[in-house]
Specification:
By secondary structure, this protein is an alpha+beta fold. The protein contains 10 helices and 17 strands. It comes from Pseudooceanicola albus.
Length: 378
């Protein structure tokens, strides 16, 4: 029996399967597996869950993962194989057991590689694979109350970690020292793990040409913080795989008047973007308020990046962000209540972002740290 927490998810997926003419759906996307079944695992060996239009689904995975799978999932049937076996053979045998000839799959899933498609087609010569394109991402767009509660819990951990980093860093320390402070807060306060997020010294961004975003995704160096430096901090805590994200700039010493003015203008433009977000409005309109404002006011010379993207589950996949649903000049999709987004902007070595929920009446922040340049030790 499907539990109430997942029944509406199964119903939505089955409706999409019927629309595509698929008799079963092969789910092998890490985040989708967690959303659909309550369990996910890395693809050390090929694994997945098969959902039929009627009846019970079945998990197929390596034997070593059976116990944690059964402990976490509502799916009653778990088929396993030893590590020396061919995982695709095990999956093909499970698919054959349903007698389906039209097998739905998400061709954009990292799990559904060309090798997986070709190998399963070889093992199931009478079957046809049907593409439910990008469904693993789009079907999870609107979150239910339980999902939003987990993201809000992650946001609270992030706020606390940001405060701890701001209080604990000082000249002579490195970006990795700030990360260590954040990791300790994550682990003691209930986050899934110690992956803190990108932290770097943003001093070089002031002199950079163009958008000057090199500091955003910089890797650790052994550079030491000096008085007057700006530390860029992006936090990405997860609670039961659900992540909140936000960015702040932390000044070592009193921020300059110029930096304070830049941040104030960034806050004002992003506040206007927030105010434009409500159900039914086009994403590109909210994007334009921030993007065009930043360019018009000379805060950026160019704006090649998106201004926000959907948040939710983050499991073990090659990507670190979900950008299928994102804000950019061509984004014609419309906001819906229950979406959760990471909205961000940067200028002149400073960064600002929030995790927000789209509500029935507008947009509310789930991250609550003051929207200003933070001062180390203050």
């Amino acid at each position: 029996m499907i539990p109430a927490s997942h029944a509406h998810r199964v119903d939505r997926l089955r409706a999409a399967m019927r629309a595509a003419g698929a008799e079963v759906f092969l789910c092998d996307h890490a985040e989708m597996l967690h959303w659909l079944t309550g369990y996910t695992v890395s693809e050390t060996f090929y694994r997945g869950c098969i959902l039929p239009l009627e009846g019970d689904p079945v998990w197929v995975l390596r034997a070593i993962d059976e116990v944690p799978c059964r402990a976490a999932t509502w799916v009653p049937r778990v088929v396993t194989y030893p590590d020396h076996a061919d995982p695709h053979v095990a999956m093909a045998e499970a698919l054959a057991g349903f007698g389906a000839t039209r097998i739905g799959a998400d061709f954009t899933s990292f799990g559904f590689t060309a090798w997986t498609r070709d190998r399963l087609s070889q093992l199931l010569p009478g079957a046809q694979f049907v593409d439910l394109n990008a469904i693993s991402n789009t079907i999870r767009n609107v979150k239910d109350a339980a999902e939003i509660a987990l993201i809000a819990e992650a946001a609270a951990i992030g706020d606390g970690a940001m405060a701890a980093i701001a209080a604990g860093i000082a000249p002579g320390m490195r970006a990795r020292d700030a990360s260590a402070i954040g990791a300790q807060h994550y682990l003691t306060q209930g986050a899934d793990d110690y992956w803190v997020g990108p932290i770097s010294i943003a001093r070089q961004a002031r002199a950079a040409q163009g958008h000057g975003m090199g500091f955003l995704h910089a890797t650790f160096t052994e550079d030491r913080l000096s008085e007057g430096d700006i530390l860029h901090v992006e936090l990405v805590p997860r609670v039961r795989f659900y992540s909140a994200r936000f960015m702040r700039s932390i000044s070592l010493g009193t921020p300059s008047a110029e930096d304070r003015e830049v941040m104030a203008r960034m806050v004002s433009l992003q506040d206007a973007q927030f105010a434009a977000i409500r159900p039914g409005e086009e994403a590109r309109a909210a994007d334009a308020l921030l993007r065009e404002g930043m360019l018009r006011e000379g805060l950026r010379d160019e704006y090649p990046n998106i201004t926000g993207y959907a948040l939710g589950i983050y499991a073990k996949t090659p990507r670190s962000s979900e950008t299928v649903i994102s804000l950019h000049p061509g984004a014609t999709w419309r906001f819906e209540a229950g979406q959760v987004l990471h909205l961000y902007t940067t200028a002149k070595g400073l960064a600002l972002s929030e995790t927000v929920e789209v509500t029935e009446t507008g947009c509310r922040r789930l991250t609550t740290t003051a929207r200003e340049i933070l001062v180390a030790g203050a």
